[in-house]
Amino acid sequence: MCYGVAALYDACRCLYYQNPVARCAGYGRPSHPPITIETIIVGYFCANHSPTADLTLDEHSWQVYDSLPLTQDEFRLLKLYPASTRQAPILIDLFKSEYGSPEVPRYDAISYRWDDPNDRRSLTANGRRISVTCSLHTALTYMRWILD
C-alpha cells in the first residue's frame, strides 16, 4: 500500500508540510488501491492565520516560552516531528512536564547554547515560526527521524 503524510495546522487546517508518497511495489497497476494520506496535526495556526502574524521571529520565540510559564517543579520538553528528508522544515512542539511525574516521557537532553548566538535559523514551534541558534537547528535536523 502506498502512503503519504500531511502535516496540518490544528486551528486553520492549512498545510504545514506534505511528505512525498512512499510507493509500494504495486504502484501504477490497475488494481492498486488508492494512496493513503495520513494526517498529523501540528501547532495551532499557520503564520498567515496567527493572531501574532505581524511579530518578528524573535518576538515569536519569546511568545512560545511565555505561553508555557513554569512552576519550580516543572520543565519544558520538546517533541520533534519526523520528516521525509533532512532538508524538510523542522517542526517541534514545546510542552511542560513535572519533575518526578510518572507521565514524563522518555527524552534525550542536549546542550545547544554553544556557537554564535547571532547565527540564527527558523523553525516552527507550537504553530509559530521562531528563530533558534544555528547549533540547535543543526542538532534537531540530525536528531529527527527520516521517514523512508
TrEMBL record:
InterPro entries: HetReg/Transcr_Mod. This is Heterokaryon incompatibility domain-containing protein. It comes from Apiospora phragmitis.
